[in-house]
Amino acid sequence: MAELVRKSSIHIRDARIAGLYDLEHTIGQGHFAVVKLAKHVFTGERVAVKIIDKSNLDCESMEHVMQEVRCMKLVQHANIVRLYEVIDTKTKLFLILELGDYDMHDFIIKHENGIVESLAQQYFYQIITAIDYCHRLHVVHRDLKPENVVFFEKLGMVKLTDFGFSNLFEPGKQLRTACGSLAYSAPEILLGDAYDAPAVDVWSLGVILFMLVCGRLPFQEANDSETLTKILDCRYITPEHLSNACKNLIQRMLVRDPTKRAVLTEIVSNAWVMAGDRGHAAALPLIVKHHLSHSAHTTIIEQMVAGGIGSEEAIMSALENDEYNSMTATYYLLAERILATHREEQAKELMSKTTTTVNSEEIVERFLV
User: Fold this and answer.
1) CA distance 87 to 326
2) Which of the four CATH numbers 1.10.510.10, 3.40.50.150, 3.40.50.300, 1.20.1300.10 does domain 102-274 have?
3) What is the pLDDT along the chain (369 residues), one digit of tens a residue?
4) In this structure, are residues 167 and 177 in contact, taking their beta carbons and an 8 Å threshold?
5) Burial class of residue 84 (count of CB atoms within 10 Å of its CB; 0-12, 13-18, 19+)
6) How far apart, in whole angstroms, are the C-alpha atoms of residue 142 and residue 129?
7) Known catalytic residues?
8) pTM here?
9) Which positions does UniProt annotate for ATP binding (predicted)?
10) CA 294/CA 291 separation, integer angstroms
């Protein structure tokens, strides 16, 4: 069955999208897109809706948008925000996304001197696992920053989001498009050079790790010109309280020469990373159809058929073909609701096991943020 495409023009101010989602308040905004909180009408579940105004996009910008959609369909991982559905209209493109609690930037600003390394290890491992997965699929993110890492508190997990600058790359071939945010961009991007795709993500990962353990950016001056100079000179100061292992890892990522910069395989196997808690991604993987019992799967299908979402044959076809339409969105929202309680209980159990390995100060840091 072909992907659901709706042709009617829909305005952002409309309260409902195609009878499927009730839009609520704005939770994020960019140049050509706005992100709104929304409720899935059939299930009542909350989602995030990225609304892209196609009428303001030229052909090149529209191609970037479609590349974002292609990349998000390709990357399906426990530590990447899920794309449920794509609704295409004459003037708007709606991306229906998994809704998190808050982003990592909001978390970091609450910790003036950074978080304890044991907690940073857990979050950083989840981020690099997601990026390693992306790179294995030849997808580069190119806009890694705390604002694009979302917390899911009940699951004790973080997930990557906003693939607006993502692209597919061929190993050994360089990219040229300059993109991303100044404070997180690699020197080679800022210089306008052709660049190795994975290396620019590694630089941004170094900035994120620095922020997690230090509570501030490594390169941040009074104006963009001075910040740019510091980045190109690769001048930053690590606090004394950091362990040598953590400092060494940061120093391996924040290297001016991309050919001398650490690669992801080195980072994943780094001693500091390996010494930390793995988090819950392995125990709480992305929900797919086979995670459900036969009875739960049957119940969902029956509920969808009774609700007029589609025939059993159409729903099964959409699931088997990995489509991103109203049927698959409804199915996975219902599946996540069924499994939510069990997964939250799993997460609590994993968290309780983790606390036995850290001291009381770290426990307070972890749960009373």
Assistant:
1) 9
2) 1.10.510.10
3) 333 333 333 444 557 787 899 999 999 887 789 999 999 999 999 999 999 999 889 898 899 899 999 999 999 999 999 999 999 999 999 999 999 999 999 999 999 899 999 999 999 999 999 999 999 999 999 999 999 999 998 888 999 999 999 999 999 999 999 888 999 999 999 999 999 999 999 999 999 999 999 999 999 888 999 999 999 999 999 999 999 999 999 999 999 999 999 999 999 999 999 987 765 555 556 677 677 889 989 999 999 999 999 999 999 999 999 999 999 999 999 998 888 766 666 666 656 655 444 443 342 333 233
4) yes
5) buried
6) 16
7) 143
8) 0.85
9) 50
10) 9
- Give the whole-angstrom CA distance, residue 264 versus residue 271: 13
Tell me whether residue 110 is annotated as binding: no
Look up residue 163 and give its two tokens.
Answer: 């693939």
In sequence order, what are the beta bridge partners of 39?
A: 22, 46
Burial category of 23 from C-beta neighbours within 10 Å (exposed 0-12, middle 13-18, buried 19 and up): buried
Q: What ranges do the domains of the chain cover?
A: 16-97, 102-274, 289-367
**How far apart, in whole angstroms, are the C-alpha atoms of residue 177 and residue 187?**
13
Would you state the CATH architecture of domain 16-97? 2-Layer Sandwich (3.30)
Specify whether the CB–CB gap between 115 and 213 falls below 8 A: yes
